[in-house]
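for ur thesis appendix - MFS transporter. copy paste whatever u need, i formatted it the way the template wanted (i think)
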Amino acid sequence: MNTQRWMSSQFFTFFLTWGVFLPYWTGWMIHIKGISISQASLIMSLGLVVRGLSTLFVYPYFSGMFSSRTLLNGMAIGTFLSMLCYIPANSYSSLLMVTLLLNLFYPTLMPALDTAAGVLVQSKQLKHYGRSRSWGSIGFVASGMVLTVFTGALGDVVIFWSLLLGTIVLVGLGLMPAPLVLSEKPQPNQTKRARMLNLFRIKHFGLVLAIVILLQAAHATYYTYGYIFLQEIHSPKYLIGLILNIAVIAEIIFFLIADRYFQRFSTGFLLALSSLGSTVRWILVFAFPNVIVFSISQILHALSFAMCHYAFMKYLIKNIPHLQIPNAQGMYSALALSWSTAVFTIFGGYLYEIEPRFAYIGMIVCSIPSMVLALVYRKLEK
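the 3d part is after this line
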C-alpha cells in the first residue's frame, strides 16, 4: 500500500464534504429552511460547542479503546445517519437538534485524520504531511467549484444533496485497506499514561495552544458570514464559490511547498507570521468592502490558517509523544477550531447586524494578541 496516497485520499474525501458544509451550510439553513440569520448563527455556534465536547472528551476517550481506522469508519457512518435526519427537519428546534447530533460525529473526523497523519509521520510511513494535506484543500476547492455551478443553476437546495452524497463517498472509502499501524488497538496500560492534563507538562504546550486558539478564532466571521457578506457587497452569485475558493487555492499552494520551504523555520516564527497575515487580512476587508479587495485578501488565508495549522503540526510531531497525539489533536480541535470559533461567531453576528464589515475588524481582537504571544514564544524556543 502507498501510505502517502492513502492519507491523501482520506484528506481529499473529507474536505470534499467540508467544502460544502463550512461555507454554505449557514446559507442553506437561512435560504432553504427559512430561519433567520440570528437563529442560524445560534445553531452553528451551539453546534461548535458540541463539536468541542466531542473532540475534547469523546474522541480522545474512544481513541484509547479503538484503533484509528475503527474510529474513522464509525464517525463516517454516524455522519451519514445524522445527515438523513435533516430531511424531515423543518423547524428551528428540529434543525438545532439535528445539527447538534451531526456535530457529535462529523467534525471529529478532522482531528482523527490529523492524528492518523501524525502517527504515520512519527512511524516513518508518511514522508510529506504537507503534500497529503494539500489534497484535502484540493478537495475543498473541487466541491466548491462544482457546487457553484449547481447552486447557480438549481438554487441552494443542492447544497444538502451534495453534502449527503459526499458522506456516502466518505463511508465507502472506509471499506478500503488502510496502513496496518492504524488498525492497532491501544493497550490499557498505555491509555492510563496518556492523560490529557499531562500535555501541559510538555515544554511550551500551553503557550502554543493559546496562540493557535486565538488565530483560529479569528476566522469565525469569515467562516460563518463570508457567503452572505459577498452577497451584501453585491458579488455576482456565480462568482461567490470562486471567490471563497481563492483562499483554499492559496492554502493548497502553501501545503504543497511547506515541507520544502518552511520546515527550516521555527514554530514561533511561523506563528508570528501567521498572526501578521491574519491581522492584515481582516483590516483589508473592513477598510475596503468590495469584491476585488475581498478576493485579494483571500490569498492571506495561506498565512492566517494554513501556516498556523502547519506550525501546530510541526510542534506536535516534534514534541508530543505518540500516545498523546489524540489528546493534543482533540484539545486543538475543541478549543481552537470549535469553542473559540463559537464564541466569536456570536460576537461576529452581533457586529454583523450593526454593520457587516464591523464583524471583520472585530477579529483583530484575536490576531493582535496572538502576534504578541507568538513573538514571546519565538524568544523562549531559542
